[in-house]
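Researcher: I'd like a structural prediction for the single chain below. Treat it as a standalone chain; there are no partners to consider.
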Amino acid sequence: MKILVSGAGVAGLALGRDLGMRGHHVTVVERAERLRGNGSPIDVRGDAIEVARKMGILPAVRAERIRMTEQVHFVDENGAAVGRLPDDIGDSPDDIEITREDLYRILADALPDIVNLRLGESVNSIAQHDDRVDVGFASGNAETFDLVLGADGMHSAVRRLVFGPEQDWIRHLGLYVAIIDMPGEADAKAERINPMYSYPGHMAGIARFKDKAIGILMFASDPIDYDYRDVEAQKKILFDQFADCHAWKVQPILDAMRADPAIYFDSVSQIHMPTWHQGRVALVGDAAHCASPLAGRGTSLAMTGAQFLAEELERPKGDHVTAFQRYEARQRPYVEFAQGTVKGGGALLVPPTEEAIAARNQLLQPVSM
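Model: Treating it as a single chain, here is the predicted structure.
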């Protein structure tokens, strides 16, 4: 079949690889001009490790493994360590933490020649018919496909065009998060300690991995009305939230934020939908079922979902309707589990009061000197 995949994140690239290897003519479009490299490291865990093995990329993924989460230390306003995360925060010792940039590169390198990856392009319109889907692109081009798969993230354009506005499906979890490039803190030879400082309703941190460093800002808030593509508006929101805090390294993180032209900023939210397909269109990954960064399972869900959908579309004498239904039936238990794991995660990172911070600190593991 001729298939369009919207979005070149983990879900989109995995779909391109899995569908292309099965002989489908796949076009993957990505709004950005390059594959995304910023953001915090991500996790391949659970059954997604077996998916990576089937894809033939597991050795490459393991070769790029980092261990950022294992070195998170919570600190006080002066930078003194008060404790570290428990040892059992992951699912198992087999979990693989990897930078987003490395996993995207590995997946892109695994795309077969039959897959056409188009950067700087995005879906503008979708018109479904019994035997095809007509798609209009932001560039002004138009093309016809047998199927359209939305793998374009929590703010999915495909979902909006086919299933309705985002507010119908999004469930805000009460937090916002920002990731900021901090080249001045990068030191490949430095000790891999990643400090995090909490004060009521807020958290600031610095994480180092490989030759990079990022600043992390989180704060509690009801939903905020802003344009998620307006970087300057995002910076103003962050400045208003953190400008009055002069403890630890909050101000240097804000200085880095001003200098970073491409910060990541978004709500900590989930997507809940009763179905992920309509006609010849289906959703995969965060577009269908974002579990939020608190779950730490978005990458793994993207990989299992792509694998399941590709397998179901390959079944003999099947059709896309049956394939979509079977894909949902296989993927739904993984999603329900992942979305259910976020309870308490926000309170661990961003306690609402000084008393809650003190109580959280009592639960932390001691820091060995």
